[in-house]
Structure formats: structure tokens, C-alpha cells
Amino acid sequence: MLAADGSAELANPETVATNTEDIQQLQQQLNAAVERIEALEGRIEARNDKIDTSSESDGQAQPDAGSTSISKLESWVTDHGPQKEIAVSIILFAAELLQKDGPLETGELKSRLYEEFPDAYESKKTLWGATVQRFYQDAPGFNKPEYGTYDFE
Fold it and tell me: Among 12, 54, 136, 149, which is least packed by CB within 10 angstroms?
């Protein structure tokens, strides 16, 4: 680089080393983020494939009440639910979890959702507030059989 007086100014080797380390750390963080996004996309695609497969059935087999409730919820979230696909996935996962293991206490449900989707939101509280807590009252199938517990019919 040339200085204002025309003399050559060399880059400080320590600065170059520090910048190189910073760039490498940022690259590692970016790679980790891309891997998490690809994993989430894969889960969303698998869930969508499962939905498509169930809607393409020939209708001869009668669905059980649980799958009917999930189907109603899937239709509802498409029309009235959150816009983010990950939030939709979390709500559907919560319904399946509650249907299988419910009723669950609020704290346990929050923890299990955050364990399944750790990178979707900044915190357990944020995930909860943007998904189940925000939509359960309007979404078909969710209910609170008693204070501090959630279930899905």
C-alpha cells in the first residue's frame, strides 16, 4: 500500500494473523449455521412429504381420530397459523408429541420442543411464545385440561 508521501507501507503481520483467525472463525460459524439450516430443511421436507403422502391415499383406509385431528390442525395452520415454516413445524410437532405423550406440563413441553428445535429460536421462552403459546387457543385440537398442562385430541 502506498502512503500519502509516496513511500510503501507494509501490512502489520500481527494484524494479518488476527484477521486471518477471525475469518477462519467466521467461516466455521457460517458452515455450522448452514448445516443446521439444511438439517431443519430436511425435517421440514420430510414432514411435508409425510403430509403429501397421507393426502394422496386412496381413501379406503379410515384414519384414526388422532390423524384426523392432526389433519385438521395442518389445514388450520396453512390458513391461519404462523408464516414461518419452522413455527408451523414446531406446532405440528407439539401436537404429535402431546397426542403421543400428553398431557404434558408446560415446562416439559417447552423443554422437549426446544430439544427438538434448538436452533430455531434464541431461547426456549422465545420458541414457546412464537408458537404453541401464541396459537394454541385458536388451533383445533389443542387444549389445557388443567392449569399448567397441555394436551392434543
Answer: 12
